[in-house]
Every structure is written in C-alpha cells, then in structure tokens.
Amino acid sequence: MTKPAFLRFARKLLTWLGLLVLTAAAAGTGLTPAELFARVSPSVWRVQTLDGDGLPLAQGSAVVVAAGQLVTNCHVLARAKRVQVRRDGQTRPMAAKLVLWDAQRDLCQLEAAGAVAPAVVLGRSSAVAVGQPAYAIGHPKGLDLTLSAGLVSSLRRNTAGQLVLVQTSAAISGGSSGGGLFNEEGELLGLTTIASIAGDAQNLNFAIPADWIRDLPRRHAALLAASSSATAASSGANPSASAPAVGR
Amino acid sequence: MTAMHAEADFQATQLAAPALHGKPGSSLLLLSRNLLATLGLAWLTACASNPGDSSSGTPSHGLGARLLLRGTVAPDDRFALNLLTDALRCTEPKLLSSGTAQRTPEPAMLAAGALTTLEFQVLRAGQPSCALRWSFTPRPGRTYLVQGSLTGGTCGARLLDVSSPERPLIPSDAVLRSLPGQDCVPLSQARAAAPPSSLIRGGQHKGEAVLNPNASTRDLQGLMPP
User: Fold this and answer.
1) Tens of pLDDT along A100-112?
2) Is residue A100 domain-shared with residue A143, that is, in the same domain?
3) Is the pTM of this model over 0.90?
4) Which residues of A are catalytically annotated?
5) What's the pLDDT at B189?
6) By the 8 A CB rule, do A161 and A184 touch?
7) pLDDT at A191 over 90
8) Pair (A144, A97) in one structural domain
9) Rounded CA gap, A126 and A12, in Å?
C-alpha cells in the first residue's frame, strides 16, 4: 500500500470509528427499563379516596411534580370527601388536599406536605413521536408500582388539530389513572387516563399530555376567576397568587 | 364497516375501583364496545358539543344534510327512522325512511342548522320496539348515518357523522334523549346527564384543547377548599 493510499484508508477508518462512537453515545442516552423504573418510580404514588364515613371510595395513582405536589386525574377524586396518598413501602398513607383542578382536562393537583420524592421532569408534547418507547408506571388494581412497556402508538388530536391524548401500547388498568407515562429518558409524557376494555381491543391506552400539567396553574386560576368573578371583582382577590408550584 | 367500528365503538366510561359501597370510584377511564354502550356514546358525546351548533332552532338556508339508515334485524322485522317534528318534546313523528333485512332504506334529507330529533325503531309484527331518540343539529353538507339493530334480545342504535366514511364520528352535539322503553327526557336534562364520552377525540374550550368540554367540578366539591 502506498503512503497516500494508506493515509486515505486511515482517514476513512477514523471517520467510521468516530461514527461508531457517536452512535453508541446516542444509543446510550436512553435508560434501560430497570434504570428508568429505579429513577422515576419513587415519584409515582398511590391515591386512595374516602367517602364521608371514611370508607374507601376509589384508588388511583399520582405523580410528584414538585415538593409536596402530586398530579392525578380528577376522575380518581370524584365524589370523595378525603384523599390520601402513599408511596410504595409506606405503611401509613398521608392526607392530601386538592389545590388545583381542571375538570375539562381531567387533571387535578394534590398537596401532601410529607410527600417527599423527586419531582419528575415534564416532557414536551411537541417532542413526542409515534414509535418511541413508552413506559407506564402506576398502581393498577392496587398492585403497587407496576411497570409496563410499550410504544407511543399514536397522537390523538381534537378537530382543531390540538393534541388531546398520547396513545400508547403500554398496558394500564383500573387504578393506573393518574400514573405516569414516561419516555426512555424518564421524562413524563403524560398521565395514564383512559384504557380500552373492548373485548377485541388490545393495548389501546391513552395518557393526557404532560404539557397540560404545565398549564394547570394558569387554567385553574382562570377557572376560579371565571367562577367567582363577581366576588373577585368586589374583593380584589387574585386567585392565582397562591397557586402551588408544578414541575417544569 | 370495520373502520367505522374502530372509531365509533369506543366508549369511555369510568371504571369502578373496588369500593365498599359500590360507587363508581373510578381509577381509569375505560372504553367499551357493546351496542348499548354505543348508544350511550351518542349521549355521552354531547359533552363535546359546540355550543354554537346546538338548538339554535334557526334553519340555515341552502344546503341540507344527507341522512342514511342501516339496520340489522330479523327477516320478518322492519326498521324505520322518524323525524320527531317537535324536536324538544319528541312528538309528532314523521317517517323519513325504512328498511328490512332484505331492503336497504332510501337516503333522506334533513334541514341543516335546526335542532333535530330522530327516532330509530324496529317494527316487529307491526309493533314498534327498540326505539331510540337523539337530538342534534345537522350541519349543512354533512352525511349522517343512523345504524341500529335488534338481534336476539339486544337492541341498539347509534348516530354517526359519516361525511368521511373512513373516519366516522359521533356528532359533537348529539344527545341521547331516550333509551328503548323509556320516555324522551327534556333536552336540558339529557345534556346535563351526559357523562364524558368521546374522550378519545377530546374537544376544545375557549381555543384550548380539553378532554371533555362539558366536564364540571361538581364531583370535586367534597375536596375543594372552602
């Protein structure tokens, strides 16, 4: 081999090696399912609602989005008089209170002072792509912290083309509501909310998008302002002033 | 009809998590597919209503809406679709179309832009049964389908917008006014009773995407701060 030919060969070899390294690095950004579970599952809590007599009413899931702040589906909380949250492994649930709500988006936020857990990172809906891996973590049927894997199957939009639901093949069941749907970096894609029970349907599951969690304080404040505009106008109250924090 | 079922058979209901006194303490919204549930879908879909569309009572000029009827019934039965001229009270039926297992019904036309109440029924030995009623406001140029069946003891029907046949939709303002064997409930009551349904399609409120435009905070009152 002549010297110029050797140099050309060496240059090509280095280029290919560089590409290999870049590819390996890119592939390495995703967590393994085990790593993902270890990272985010402490932030997925169990929700238990109680009626006026203290009897269990419903059970669901919630995701910690800020210190002491958990988001869940409002339908989990329907008709409840009290609500409790519990982290896996805790024997005693802690009382929580409803602080933000957006019934139209089925999104509610609870505050539990003792809910110490890492806040999840909220993903961007604009970055969600059909086909990417998706992992659901929740408390289906009371089975604490169940992990299931699948794909983002589709993005469901309203007639105006706005994203309404992230469809996933990651399995969820009753009790998963309010649980987390995560991407392979452990970012929250949405809250698992709807599933199909049709006899001939398989793995047709849906999560409300994480972007809605960012919107919650604003929309909640707007809701309060709209529902009590007369009172607010006369008292000069600012309903958004005390809005709790949410994850970003 | 496979594609049609794929969209239209979805129904969202709340799954009752184990509760001591049997209340629907939901922990996951679920979709189901049986026919009666599908009936409910039309009802539930009222939640995605566009307030500007409904019950205006003012017919639009020009284009009407096309109405198709399909039924699955026993060989000796007949199915029919009535327009209830008094749409609010569900009275004064006027036959729009009818068919049998062997004969496909003729299409009919509806006035667009006015509140319309339709009644599907199956006539068995001349006696009406399996009557279901919906109210909605047809939109000009759209094609609607009422599809019903009475097979065995199961009776059901649904109202769909099939303007795009490959993607049939429940009309966003459709409200189920009565189930088989029941009286027509007032429109306001039907709307108020309508639970969330076409959640998969979601909706829009004040320009923002929502899951259910008609959802209220009523069920959260027990947890709301004073």
Assistant:
1) 999 999 999 999 9
2) no
3) no
4) 75, 106, 177
5) 78
6) no
7) yes
8) no
9) 37
